[in-house]
Amino acid sequence: MRTLLPAGWKPPIGYSNGVEIEAGRIVFVAGQVGWNADQVFESDQLVPQFEQALKNIVDVLAEAGGRPHHICRMTAYCIDRPAYLASRAELGAIWRRVIGRHFPAMSMIFVADLLDHPAKIELEATAVLPRLPG
What fold, for 2-129? Predict the structure, then answer.
């Protein structure tokens, strides 16, 4: 995987502007909210929901044999911009603990609401895994 940064551009913080990757097995992970395996929210707060949603992404990806460094694109949908901005340091620490220092191409979109109440954030991801032998 090669991150793309045009000459003269200031490097982004916490994401990549673009990612180039050799073709392989593509895994699409549906939007994951901050509930546990039983679809129960253990918190109605953004930070713990973000951590759980990120772990859910990793768990679904693992079913295909993938690891966090295979993620090439992630989109986040959040209903609370002020809470997100106030929590960026905590969210960054969670990212590094769950994903590491791998920063795919990402978008953050603020929305009015999410389907699963009381979800504050929903994450979806696309990953490219190496081709299976044979």
Answer: 60s Ribosomal Protein L30; Chain: A; (3.30.1330)
